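Subject: for your reference before the review

Hello V.,

The reviewers asked for a structural picture of the protein, and I figured it would be easier to keep everything in one thread rather than splitting it across files. Below is the amino acid sequence we used in the manuscript, unchanged from the supplementary table.
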Amino acid sequence: MALSLFEKIWREHVIRDLGNGYALLHIDRNVNHDLVGSLVFEPLDKLKRRMPFPELNFATMDHGIDTDPGRGDETKIPGGKDGVQGLRRKSKEYGVHLFDLGDVRQGIVHVITPELGIALPGLTLVCGDSHTTTVGGMGALCWGAGVTEIEHVLATQTLLVEKPKALRILFEGRVAKGVTPKDMILYAIGQLGAKAGNGYCVEFAGEAIRALPVEGRLTVCNMAIEMAARFGMVAADDTTFEYIAGRPFAPKGALFDQGVRYWRTLPSDPGAAFDREVTLDAGKIEPQITWGTSPQDVIGVSGRVPDPAKAPNAEQRGYLERALKYAGLAPGAPIDGTPIDVAFIGSCTNSRLSDLRRAAQILKGRKVAKGVTAWCVPGSGQVKRDAEAEGIDRVFRDAGFEWREPGCSMCVALGGDKFGPGQRSISSTNRNFENRQGVGVRTHLASPEMVAAAAVTGRITDVRKLAV
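And here is what came back from the structure prediction:
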């Protein structure tokens, strides 16, 4: 029987089929962060129960910490401090691998799990964050879990999960010069809508996906949740295996060779059944930019802001009017040339070394426009160290960017990092919801290159005009 990538991994992990679409699954890896702190350990404390497999559990500091250069052990907000100290205390008590502040391995959870070789093809991995879909770019089955679900994993290394339907999105053809993985996934969300993946595991496939490096695949899967899919995946291949080799928690020697032999069996078989398939022409994609208050509010940089007067019905007209009011944009106006106040490069979507390299190419020899605040937040201590070894930090600093410490930072503005009311931000993050980057902040999502281009021109700019 021909099986999909998802179906193969699902079947390997079913401990018991419970009927009605539910199964008890074995969970290979769990990763905690400081936002959940000590909270998820409370049931174990009350029951005086030990974790069965502490070596399969990891933790890092990322959500509630500030990213000020030279930060210490303290955080800007009381809740952040409690989370850091609680996670540190409980990780030590229960024997969980912790990547603490000051550790080069510390960073955004969805950046460090592939980077350290914690995430591997064919595994199940959960974390208390919806963007755990990111790690599906490794060919793994990964998803965001709630607090009570994480508690269950810590106590049993298992989880009750409803089996999703299967959706395959094929990006056929080749992307044009200047088009990035971020543009690909924004385009897909714009074409299909923010609810297209609801109830599905999405496999991204096709020529344009296969051509991506692993870090690009992680970017695409990161935003699967923005089309309401709990799971996003890309099949592992030689590109993946080369990426994994030698990473700290990856198998070594004969075990690595054994892993590769198994991983090669996982891609979807020819003729595998999907509940839905969609094909997108990758050649039609241009650099993308969001205009409203949802990732589905996206257009090509050469496009114009929608006009509510042209909406097909009253409901859609009302939605467009509300989004445009918050965004402070005029109906029908060109998006290219819209002035910006702040530029942010970072997040689990686009803060890896390859992202910073590409942005630095745009910034080299240029300066941030007068009146624009610009930040770069590397995704991990290792990314920061590697970028500094290549001189990338000097390019950012010379251009006028702040070069900050690793963390989630202005993706969600939980750790004390935030922008001011009414400011217009162009950001390499994944959500442009109202107040996401601070109260009243208007966020435009784009690739790191587009953020860099806007930073030096002071307005949303087609990066292809600046590309070298």
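For the response letter, the relevant points are probably these. The first helix runs from residue 5 to 13. The mean pLDDT is 96.

Happy to draft the paragraph if you're swamped.

O.
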